[in-house]
From TrEMBL:
It holds the Pfam family LptD_N. It comes from the Bacteria. Keywords: Cell outer membrane, Membrane. The keyword Membrane applies. This is Organic solvent tolerance protein. PANTHER family: LPS-ASSEMBLY PROTEIN, LPS-ASSEMBLY PROTEIN LPTD. Residues 79-218 form the Organic solvent tolerance-like N-terminal domain. One of its GO terms (cellular component) is transporter complex. Residues 224-296 form the LPS-assembly protein LptD central domain.
Amino acid sequence: MSGGLLILLIYHGFAYSASLISEPVQACVIARDVDLTDAIRAKFAECLGWQADQSSPLCLGSYKPTTVTPLASVDEVRILADRVSFYRDKRSTLSGNVEVQQDQRVVNAQTAYVYRDAKTNEVTKIEFLGDVRYLEPDRLMIARKAVINPQDKSGITEDVLYRFNTNRNNAALPAWGRASLIRRFANKDYFLRKATYTTCAPQDKAWDIQAETLTLDDAKAKGVARNAVLRIHDWPVFYSPYLSFPTSKERKSGFLMPLAGYSNVGGFDLGLPYYWNIAPNYDMTIEPHLYSERGVMMGGNFVI
């Protein structure tokens, strides 16, 4: 069909396809109100593909790469499952080791439902349930439920554990966190609800941000967190109704990674640096610091 989607069904009983995602999924998705114990963090690290390496100069480890080999056609949709009840005039059901790939997006689940337009016979949406794993370049999401639209590549995931590459100069590791909902728009923007965000290793409690909403703008390479709370070692230390930060290597104004430390003189130290891209040839970093024993101090530097 001209302009439509090519769908290829492969039954696992007749063809073999190596899993594109190898990390385990059990206990990767838990209730948002559950405290993150060391055991849960260790499981999250495993689910997100964290590889411990004591010899690594950075955070004693790294993540497995998230790469996908694209299909021959961007309009092709490949579906694999143990069992398929396929219909052209009503909802189709896929069950057992379901894997759906479109271009460089791969979704795995235990069950999936395929919906078609009654007039055009085109696939309008695919709903995934149970141990959902959503993968595309630089994006990994593990969720309770997901719905994707093959026509415009938009989608929604619910109760999500995610890992996103940020491509920031000062972000040594990809960002990871949890969200009650993540919406992917057709233009590759992302919207997260009731989300956490950090670039620390999964088992590192140094800092994270909890936000009511988090928006990642692909075109502007900018993230915006609303009603955000900065936490240091699980302790809330700073609130802001609005936080903006860059998500690319380009110079953009925004908050940088929080700084935390301790000394015998100043006590506990919390810094929240803000980078101000004043012009292409000069910029400024403003660094307010809060010392538990000495109060608030302001620092910074100006670069020409």
